[in-house]
């Protein structure tokens, strides 16, 4: 029986999440992309708290959209918010998406913004 692309992505994400977790010293950057938008959160899994978040759905970033340029703008904003929250090192959770295109551009921009993976 053929599996849907959504089910395959969810299985990949669950497989990665079994061994990847955010701590207070090194929180997790969780990225989600839809067809039109991209969003990300910096999460402390131990406390169950979101430390910072950014999304292309926000009014200030809505014009950026969910393409590669939009992903770069969202990552820039997230990096600024992370620094304001005192976060410098993170683990990257690509959410089961391929490290390619928008996800790769997002990660590279976060690195350029001062976050260490």
Describe the protein in words:
By secondary structure, this protein is of the alpha+beta class. It has a single domain, classed as Nucleotidyltransferase, domain 5 (2-Layer Sandwich). The protein is built from 3 helices and 4 strands, in the order αβββαβα. Strands 3-2-1-4 form a 4-stranded mixed sheet. Strand 1 and strand 2 form a beta hairpin. Helix 2 runs parallel beside helix 3 (102-112). The longest helix is centred in the middle third of the chain and has 17 residues, at 68-84. The protein starts with a helix and ends in a 5-residue tail after the last helix. The mean pLDDT is 94.
Features:
35% helix, 4-stranded mixed sheet, single chain, 117 residues, Nucleotidyltransferase, domain 5, alpha+beta
Q: In terms of per-residue confidence, which ranges show pLDDT below 50 for 5 or more consecutive residues?
A: none
Question: What strand order characterises the main sheet?
Answer: 3-2-1-4
The SS-based structural class is alpha+beta
Q: What does the main sheet amount to?
A: 4 strands, mixed
User: What would the principal axes of the Cα set say about the shape?
Assistant: globular
| Beta-strand residue percentage | 15-25%
CATH topology: Nucleotidyltransferase, domain 5
Q: What is the CATH-assigned architecture?
A: 2-Layer Sandwich
Number of strands: 4
CA(first)-CA(last) distance: 38 Å
Quick one: CATH class? Answer: Alpha Beta
Q: Give the helix proportion (percent range).
A: 25-40%
SSE arrangement, N to C: HEEEHEH
Query: What would the average pLDDT be, to the nearest integer?
Result: 94
Domains counted in the coordinates: how many? 1
């Amino acid at each position: 029986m053929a599996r849907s692309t959504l089910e395959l992505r969810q299985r990949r994400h669950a497989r990665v999440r079994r061994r990847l977790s955010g701590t207070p010293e090194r929180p997790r950057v969780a990225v989600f992309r839809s067809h039109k938008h991209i969003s990300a959160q910096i999460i402390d899994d131990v406390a169950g708290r979101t430390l910072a978040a950014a999304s292309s759905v926000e009014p200030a970033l809505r014009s950026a959209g969910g393409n590669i340029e939009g992903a770069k703008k969202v990552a820039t904003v997230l990096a600024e918010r992370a620094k304001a929250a005192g976060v410098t090192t993170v683990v990257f959770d690509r959410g089961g998406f391929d490290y390619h295109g928008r996800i790769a551009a997002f990660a590279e921009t976060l690195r350029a913004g001062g976050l260490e993976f």
